[in-house]
Specification:
The protein is α/β, with parallel strands linked by helices and about 350 residues long. The protein has 13 helices and twelve strands.
Amino acid sequence: MKSAKILSLLVAVPLIFAAGCGSKGTGTASNSGGAAGTPDKKVVKIGISQIVEHPSLNATREGFLAALKDGGFVDKDNLQVDYQNAQGDSTTNLTIAQKFASDKKDLVLAIATPSAQAVVQNVKDTPVLFAAITDPVGAKLVKSLDKPGGNVSGAADTNPESITKLMDFIASDFPKVKNVGVVINEGEPNAVVMLKTAEAALAKHNIKVVKAAVANSSEVKQAAESLVGRVDAFYTTLDNTVISAVESIIKVANDKKIPFFSADRDTVEKGAIATYGFKYYDHGYQAGKMAVEILKNGAKPADMKVTFPDKLDLIINQNSAKQQGVEITDSMKSKMQDKNNLLNAAAK
């Protein structure tokens, strides 16, 4: 009888213990700092500062988060993402950077030059990555591309060769183009750097650049219209002010039959004719892989080389060409490595 009681106790104890463990393992969002999961799960907190809404920057953010997910960091599970958009306002942009500095995030991503400059100036004790940046050294984000130093590194979105290739394409396949019009906010360092590269490349073909300056996106339409009759083509850099209102340039280009070239694939998908480019999703993914190295393996931004896009190809939108009175020739198509980059996207 005594041995039977002992046996009953031995069976009951593990059952009670298992029941206790099962109760403890049922976590709630409040137990993990706003993310689902168990109370003891470490939740990584990331801040994302983006200067304005437009497809290239949005795709960059999406690619970044996809790389984090592939690296084991899942939003609302073991990852808490604080996404803030300045909507082009400099005061808001600064406030976002200051907020992230006081919040003590595990990592901050800054998308576009103005956001990165504000974040780098304010966030000193947290790893910082940037993306959609044309000239990280010129923007004073890092000391050098190979050895950034400090707490900052990231992914630059401009391979100067993409600009040169596009200008050479314009010269070879659009022989009637003698003047290229550029709507530009010269307050954006990235836009200025890219335009200088384009000007130098066009000068070799005796093609001139005609600028129309703007200070904000509401001036883009009027600036584009001011170039009509003075230029044979339009070109836009990765100018956040201009890209956020690029539909205005597309409309003028379509109405006046002026070929429009851009520095990014997303604008070609929207209504420009061509670019030598890459997918901003892939660009953001590059930055995301860097974040995984920092968060999972303890890598230091100071030792991480700035990355560049490595997949450049001619991208052509046939529908845009038709709208702007341009015939896509076999010569143009022959310059494409991937025929999937021959698009038929309708203007948006």
